């Protein structure tokens, strides 16, 4: 008996790049063995490989070559295939694999003939066993090599550049040597957001991080704080981190309305000069927010401004004041510019806390809930997905299912 996972993913050709990856992807033994026990044809080459092995294994009505005059059972045991697979980056930054070295040994092949002239053949069994063993050994490496290179068309479908939305795309090219062990294959990908069409680098770079040794899922994807911060940099540069808050966004149950009556209570000039008008607020960041991941906790530190406008019946806006806002675990407001005389910002704190909690955060959550594309191969579906926030990165553990890439082919 033997198992496919005896396959040794060995030597590799290191890349010369030295950038730390923003995203790491680890395929575990469970992932490498994907589908080996199912009857579906595999779409990962590793799996095809296992089917080749399964074909060799077993007793052999499929090897009934002596027609009508008998049959034989073939059993092969102690098959070991040692193969070294080089994982390299192709010209597009996608991984490419090839076999650099392969050796197959068949410990023993036993053949037993039944019926017909089997008594005669059985006399020569020892010689036949040996011939079969040698023949199998010669056949296995070419099969392995083909199966490994069959992986490449699938790796070519890795989405190296994935569009996120109208502002951003994310790059997943390989930036570091894959770490290959007997039980896992780990890829270091760039995981960096860019403005569509512009490749501007942020003033910070990725820091090294290590995926935990967990192996219950088929696939682990670690998204670093660098990836999140490159997104913040891109959206900030695109001017996308701004939001108009209007009165209809304020929950109906709120005691505060976004109008000059509410603000006039705290700032008398507003009541005098802009009586009975609705207002709107422009909340925007002044520099990219900074995201940090701590165990079970995602923190965002943002600084920005809140500009308040009165809306005249003819739709003209009059600016009332600009507040500077620093938000981390607490929110800090100071007056930047006032067009309505001096006032105490502390009085407005509860209003802005409500606006932040009831309007801005829900809007952000809706944006975040839209998600963003993960590195994916072909028509890969994630199942049993779990998310953990760890120190400096977010870990997604998931199983995968492949929808047929080759149509309905079956083996
Ligand atoms: C994070 O949350 C999980 C699940 O609630 C818990 O098991 C784990 O101990 C927490 N980790 C830390 C560092 O608080
Ligand atoms: C709109 O109304 C305001 C206040 O009545 C006035 O000051 C402003 O000139 C008007 N703007 C236009 C374009 O009519």
From TrEMBL:
Domain Lipid-binding serum glycoprotein C-terminal: residue ranges: 213-398
Molecular function GO terms recorded: lipid binding
GO CC annotations on file: extracellular space
Signal sequence, renumbered to the chain: 1-18
Domain Lipid-binding serum glycoprotein N-terminal residue range list: 8-198
InterPro entries in UniProt: Bactericidal_perm-incr_a/b_dom, BPI/LBP/Plunc, Lipid-bd_serum_glycop_C, Lipid-bd_serum_glycop_N
Coiled-coil annotated residue ranges, if any: none
Pfam families for the chain: LBP_BPI_CETP (PF01273), LBP_BPI_CETP_C (PF02886)
Compartments, as annotated in UniProt: Secreted
GO biological process: defense response to Gram-negative bacterium; innate immune response
Tree of life domain: Eukaryota
Keywords carried by this UniProt record: Antibiotic, Antimicrobial, Disulfide bond, Glycoprotein, Immunity, Innate immunity, Secreted, Signal
Biological role: The cytotoxic action of BPI is limited to many species of Gram-negative bacteria; this specificity may be explained by a strong affinity of the very basic N-terminal half for the negatively charged lipopolysaccharides that are unique to the Gram-negative bacterial outer envelope.
Domain notes: The N-terminal region may be exposed to the interior of the granule, whereas the C-terminal portion may be embedded in the membrane. During phagocytosis and degranulation, proteases may be released and activated and cleave BPI at the junction of the N- and C-terminal portions of the molecule, providing controlled release of the N-terminal antibacterial fragment when bacteria are ingested. The N- and C-terminal barrels adopt an identical fold despite having only 13% of conserved residues.
Complex and partners: Monomer. Homodimer; disulfide-linked.
Family indicated by similarity: Belongs to the BPI/LBP/Plunc superfamily. BPI/LBP family.
Record's protein name: Bactericidal permeability-increasing protein
């Amino acid at each position: 008996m033997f198992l496919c996972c005896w396959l040794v993913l060995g030597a590799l050709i290191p890349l010369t790049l030295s950038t730390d990856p923003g995203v790491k992807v680890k395929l575990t033994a469970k992932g490498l063995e994907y589908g080996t026990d199912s009857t579906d044809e595999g779409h990962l080459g590793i799996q095809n490989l296992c089917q080749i092995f399964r074909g060799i294994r077993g007793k052999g009505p499929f090897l009934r070559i002596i027609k009508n005059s008998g049959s034989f059972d073939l059993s092969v045991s102690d098959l070991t295939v040692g193969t070294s697979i080089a994982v390299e980056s192709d010209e597009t930054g996608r991984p490419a694999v090839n076999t650099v070295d392969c050796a197959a040994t068949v410990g023993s092949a036993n053949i037993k003939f039944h019926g017909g002239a089997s008594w005669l053949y059985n006399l020569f069994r020892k010689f036949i066993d040996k011939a079969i063993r040698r023949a199998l050994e010669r056949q296995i490496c070419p099969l392995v090599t083909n199966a490994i290179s069959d992986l490449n068309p699938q790796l070519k479908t890795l989405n190296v550049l994935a569009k996120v939305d109208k502002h951003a795309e994310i790059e997943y090219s390989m930036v570091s040597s894959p770490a290959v062990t007997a039980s896992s294959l780990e890829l270091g990908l760039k995981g960096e957001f860019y403005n569509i069409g512009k490749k501007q680098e942020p003033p910070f770079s990725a820091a090294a991080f290590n995926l935990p040794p967990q192996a219950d899922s088929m696939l682990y994807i670690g998204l670093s704080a660098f990836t999140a911060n490159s997104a913040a940099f891109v959206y900030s540069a695109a001017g996308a981190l701004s939001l108009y808050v209007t009165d209809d966004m304020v929950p109906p149950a709120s005691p505060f309305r976004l109008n000059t009556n509410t603000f006039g209570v705290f700032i008398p000039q507003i009541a005098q000069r802009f009586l009975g008008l609705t207002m709107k607020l422009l909340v925007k960041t002044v520099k990219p927010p900074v995201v940090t991941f701590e165990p079970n906790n995602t923190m965002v530190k943002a600084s920005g401004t809140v500009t308040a406008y009165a809306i005249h019946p003819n739709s003209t806006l009059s600016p009332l004041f600009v507040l500077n806002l620093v938000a981390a675990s607490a929110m800090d407001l100071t007056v930047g510019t006032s067009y309505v005389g001096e006032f105490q910002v502390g009085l407005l704190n509860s209003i802005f806390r409500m606006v932040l909690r009831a309007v801005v955060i829900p809007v952000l959550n809706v944006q975040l809930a839209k998600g963003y594309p993960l590195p994916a191969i072909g028509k890969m579906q994630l199942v049993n997905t779990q998310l953990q926030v760890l120190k400096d990165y977010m870990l997604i553990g998931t199983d995968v299912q492949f929808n047929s890439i080759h149509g309905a082919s079956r083996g």
